[in-house]
Design goal:
- The protein has 29 helices and seven strands.
- Helix 9 crosses helix 10 and helix 13 crosses helix 28.
- It is mainly alpha-helical.
Length: 670
């Protein structure tokens, strides 16, 4: 049995009441009716208010700077929703205290809307500014007699281009997520671990009942553990910029630090000259292990087996061919070989992404009726289901909103590509259309594994535009930026909607909160970009691994698709076949047998991210499986709070460290 809070006075969740579990073979209509009856409370308390939107917008604007900085420094950006939930609750509590409680407390759904606005502002608007526009700066030739200091970021890409691009791609992702929400959240019930963690965090902040308080205490313990682990795993990149933290750890001879990764070298002997496959390690990340606890064994095992296949069989085999053929004229190396290491994922991502793309398309094709309901609205013949369908139509985001929103966005994006990047009109339309496909893929990957493969989505577009616009490096990067930013925006919105779904929020109001957040984010991230990176010289002071990767792929693919190794083309074809076959097989199998089917998303994603991430997921799945075997009742009750606390704790610490590094970096101090 599960429980959910029902309405209470003064916008506070009251004592939970038992609700019946859904049968495993419940229809989409039954799932919708069950949620409406037992979870939905969006009409009973404030949700979309000005104070929620404004606070979320300003929090997101602050975090946008931190995400831009971390993307330039280490190549990744952190999620915003959990951080925003906690910060908003604390800030508003402080405001109420200072005002003598003249202001009312935010309801739990107001806080959810605030988190949606902050998430859109801080995450879904700036993920490609550092990568795409940074790569354009690096690809800009330095005229004779000038230096990198003379190349102004402002001159490489005009501010109006960055504004229009950021705003339109952010909004595009929000609108493209509309038909995915009903399918992935309502009906497939995908995990979206960060969204689930944000919901559990908010429940704990507003809890009152004895059972809810017990879960809250467990979540707080997990939160504390996550904060501690996140602090002790602080990276060298942050310590190099934040002097007082470095001095703290140096005082203890760095014995307190938890390594960011623990390399495993037993696989080195499988590779020529004993080189180490980069990423073959254990990553003691509370966030990844907790995500594995939430998504479970099926997906985690799919990740691990697929990654083992890459690192222990296919990788050594192709590396041996590289070693034997490297002296042959015209031979293209499969992998990137470094000093004592070899990078597999730069090659493997082509096959892995192909699996994810084609499996997502096959899943949509097989469930086209459900997807169509997102546009035509739910239908039911009579009785309770008819009443439920009518209520659902009143609160879900109508499919026509996507059509109305995408028309002007498409026109603006095609015009921008023609004017700013020299793209033909038909190629611009293809870029927008492909953004929907790749947003679908990224959203499913996020829903199943809490990992959004933004870089992989961008590289698919770069490969496509190597054919559509050969030798046009600006078009190559612009297409990748459109796909990556819209995909991250869609995945981010669905993560927030998962949080709202767990809390019983009105999805239409949450959509509007995310919509407003894109404007806040654009207003912040564009001037921050030009202030943080005024010249190419300043840009080159950052490590920018993700930006360098985009630059490298653009340089290669603008020479033509023939620059790809033959094995990468074969991987794309084989991956596509696997991606189509798995959803069809899953559909043909009896319901009881489907739980033993591997996850197509897991198989593909394992070739996009390093082994160390996959292994951490598996560790989390093993922990929860053993817990269930030992004491099923406590596992069912406390697994989600523990995992949510760990995810929230490490996310909060990552945000705090990144913001600290950003402030110190901008101030030029330590």
């Amino acid at each position: 049995m599960t429980t959910v809070a029902q309405p209470a006075p003064e916008n506070q969740p009251p004592l939970p009441t038992p609700i019946p579990d859904l049968p495993a073979d419940a229809t989409p209509e039954q799932k919708d009716l069950h949620w409406l009856r037992h979870t939905y409370q969006g009409d009973r308390m404030p949700q979309l208010t000005w104070r929620a939107v404004i606070m979320g917008g300003f929090l997101g604007m602050a975090m946008a700077a931190a995400n831009l900085y971390t993307t330039l420094s280490i190549g990744w950006a952190f999620g915003i929703a959990i951080t925003a939930c906690v910060l908003s609750f604390c800030i508003w509590t402080f405001v109420r205290f200072c005002s003598g409680n003249r202001f009312s407390q935010m309801s739990v759904l107001e806080n959810a809307c605030m988190a949606s606005t902050a998430s859109a502002a801080g995450f879904s608007t700036g993920s490609t500014i550092a990568t795409m526009f940074g790569a354009l700066v690096l690809l800009h030739d330095i005229p004779e007699g000038q230096t990198a200091a003379d190349i102004k970021t402002w001159d490489v890409t005009a501010p109006w281009v960055v504004v229009v691009f950021t705003l339109c791609t952010g909004l595009m992702g929000v609108f493209l997520a509309i038909p995915m929400k009903r399918q992935m959240i309502n009906h497939e019930q995908l995990a979206f671990p960060s969204g689930m963690a944000a919901a559990e965090t908010l429940k704990s902040l507003y809890s009152q009942s004895t059972q809810a308080l017990r879960k809250a205490y467990i979540l707080v313990i997990g939160l504390g553990a996550g904060l501690l682990i996140g602090f002790l795993r602080v990276g060298d990149d942050v310590l190099g910029k934040v002097g007082f933290l470095k001095r703290f750890f140096d005082f203890f001879d760095n014995k307190l630090r938890i390594p960011t990764e623990m390399e495993m070298h037993f696989a080195d002997k499988l590779y020529p000259r004993g080189v180490h496959p980069a990423g073959f390690a254990f990553e003691p990340s509370a966030l990844l292990i907790a995500a594995g606890m939430i998504v479970g064994m099926r997906i985690s095992l799919s990740l691990l087996v697929s990654s083992v296949l890459l690192y222990l069989w296919i990788g050594p085999w192709l590396a041996g061919i590289d070693e034997a053929q490297r002296a042959v004229e015209g031979y293209k190396l499969t992998f990137i070989w470094g000093d004592g290491f070899i990078m597999l994922t730069r090659w493997a991502l082509w096959g892995g992404t192909s699996v994810m793309v084609f499996s997502s398309l096959a899943s949509v094709a097989l469930q086209w009726k459900t997807v169509a309901r997102a546009f035509i609205g739910a239908r039911a013949s009579a009785g309770d289901e008819a009443d439920g369908a009518a209520r659902l139509r009143a609160i879900e985001v109508p499919g026509k909103w996507m059509i109305v929103g995408m028309l002007p966005i498409t026109i603006a994006m095609v015009w921008l590509q023609i004017q700013a990047f020299g793209v033909s009109w038909y190629a611009g339309l293809i870029a927008v259309a492909m953004s929907f496909v790749l947003s679908l893929v990224a959203s499913r990957a996020t829903g199943e594994t809490d990992t959004t493969p933004i870089g992989a989505m961008g590289k698919v577009m770069q490969l496509l535009f190597a054919v559509l616009a050969p030798k046009n490096v600006a078009a190559n990067l612009a297409s990748a930026g459109i796909a990556a930013n819209s995909a991250s925006s869609s995945a981010d919105l669905l993560t927030d909607l998962k949080m709202g779904y767990r809390l019983g929020a009105n999805p239409r109001k949450q959509f509007l909160a995310q919509f407003f957040g894109v404007f806040f984010g654009t207003l912040a991230i564009v001037p921050i970009w030009y202030l943080m990176v005024p010249t190419r010289e300043k840009l080159e002071t950052f490590a920018m691994p993700a930006t360098r990767a985009w630059e490298a792929v653009a340089r290669i693919l603008t020479k033509g698709i023939g620059e790809l190794p033959d094995s990468a083309v074969h991987a794309i074809l084989i991956g596509g076949a696997i991606g189509v076959a798995l959803p069809i097989l899953d559909r043909l199998l009896p319901l009881k047998a489907r739980k033993f089917m591997p996850s197509a998303t897991g198989i593909g994603l394992a070739w996009v991210m390093p082994f160390q991430n996959c292994f951490s997921f598996f560790v989390g799945a093993v922990i929860v499986t053993a817990w269930v075997k030992a004491h099923k009742r406590s596992a069912d009750e406390y697994n989600i709070p523990v995992a949510s606390g760990l995810i929230a704790g490490e996310s909060l610490m990552a945000a705090a460290l990144a913001i600290t590094a950003t402030v110190v970096g901008l101030l030029g101090g330590s």
